[in-house]
Write a structure and sequence with these properties.
The structure is a single chain. The protein is an alpha/beta fold. It is built from 13 helices and 11 strands. The strands form 3 sheets. The protein has a 7-stranded mixed β-sheet, with helices on both faces. The longest helix has 20 residues. The protein is extended, with a radius of gyration of 32 Å. The relative contact order is 0.13. It comes from Effrenium voratum. This is Macro domain-containing protein.
Length: 395
């Protein structure tokens, strides 16, 4: 048995169980630097960040809103606690007080669906429930997944990165809003082992249009705004695919190029289909086309989500779009949510105003000597000899 710490892609693989000693497990090589960084904000004595109180996290969130640098410290502190829970195989809940075993969720397994592949119709299970499409503007996708999982649903969360740079080789879990999937769940364990699971290069597979499906991910923490408290673990799946980063925009928030619109629609269709093939009856996705560096036409993308959801309504009774990102509020979210739930309304026709032709004839300029003579008359100045003009006609 190896007792070293294998490090890859900036995140540790973990220790073989049982470890050399309990204290060494909490101070894994990858966590040593993060523990020191976390203490800058958390003011926490000891190495076991599983004991970090939610009240301290809420207090740190307020501090981080005034100092952007502290957000990465807070994300590191939460991630360290989650990683230690995976290494130890358990954690202690405070409400209600109980010891929770999460050892069965610390090793998610991934598989690859190559580009262009679609599941067979026989692998899709029809549902007798009527489809519901919902939007949540003040909840993260993980929060909605927890609610649906408590209802007994098999939940799949969609994760999307740019097709030009899928970011599968190196990742820092320092963004409080966009990295919650990594520091609130066990997904990071599967993410770091994805190449070994699929026996292919993740970047190449994703750029070509492949889909990486990770099963058995455990959600260990609650909402970030509540202090990321430990919760009864829920098991979900994560589907990872790619989209173009900055497609061309047309008038009235549509895709300017038909091939880009078709690419996005086909990618969503394949993602929904493979989620259904893996047994999912609830799909949760953030508005990723308008966050994380993506810049898609907001209303057109919302309409595509609605169209694809309706295509799979026989097999997928629940589709939810959720975000708590600060930029997704007020009028931005209202129009987007309406497009997702009801479909994008037909935009009014564009009224093109005809161009106004300019005069082609140039104005004839006045004679300079005549202007000078007029000026002299106004100032009662005699004209220079030979320049005065005489009238040649009389009334």
């Amino acid at each position: 048995m190896k007792h070293g710490h294998e490090v890859t892609a900036g995140v540790f693989y973990g220790l073989a169980k049982p470890g050399p000693c309990p204290d060494q497990v909490l101070r894994a090589a990858r966590l040593s630097d993060l523990i020191q960084e976390s203490r800058k904000l958390a003011q926490f004595d000891g190495d076991d960040f599983r004991q970090l109180e939610p009240s301290r996290v809420i207090e740190a969130l307020k501090e981080a809103s005034e100092d952007a640098e502290k957000t990465s410290w807070l994300a590191a502190a939460i991630f360290v606690g989650t990683a230690q829970a995976c290494l130890k195989g358990g954690y202690s809940m405070t409400s209600p007080p109980k010891q929770v075993d999460c050892g069965h969720l610390v090793r998610p397994i991934s598989c690859l669906h190559p580009a262009g592949s679609m599941p067979s119709q026989s692998s899709l299970k029809a549902s007798c429930q009527r489809q519901r499409i919902q939007c949540y503007c003040s909840s993260d996708a993980l929060d909605v997944a927890l609610q649906l999982s408590a209802e007994g649903r098999h939940v799949t969360i969609l994760r999307c990165t740019a097709s030009t740079h899928p970011r599968s080789e190196r990742r820092k879990y320092s963004n409080l809003h966009e990295d919650q999937l990594f520091f609130r769940t066990t997904y990071f364990e599967g993410f770091e082992r994805v190449e070994a699971d699929i026996q292919a290069a993740p970047d190449t597979s994703l750029v070509e249009g492949g889909i990486i499906y990770t099963s058995g991910v455990g959600i260990l923490r609650g909402a970030l705004k509540d202090g990321a408290p430990w919760v009864e673990p829920a098991q979900v799946d994560v589907l990872w695919f790619t989209l173009p980063l900055h497609p061309h925009h047309g008038e009235q928030e549509i895709y300017a190029r038909e091939e880009e619109r078709n690419l996005v629609s086909a990618a969503l269709d394949r993602a929904f289909a493979w989620a259904c093939a893996h047994g999912a009856d609830a799909l949760v996705l953030p508005p990723f086309a308008c966050q994380g560096g993506f810049l898609h036409p907001r209303l057109h993308f919302a309409g595509l989500v609605h169209e694809v959801s309706r295509l799979h309504e026989r097999h997928l009774p629940s589709v939810c779009v959720a975000s708590e990102h600060p930029s997704h509020d007020a009028a931005w979210w209202d129009g987007f949510a309406d497009g997702v739930v009801n479909g994008r309304p037909v935009p009014p026709p564009i009224i093109h105003v005809p161009t106004i032709p300019l005069m082609t004839d140039k104005l004839v300029g006045k004679d300079a000597s005549a202007l000078l003579e007029k000026r002299r008359k106004q100032h009662a100045v005699w004209s220079s000899p030979g320049t005065r003009q005489f009238r040649t006609s009389f009334m």
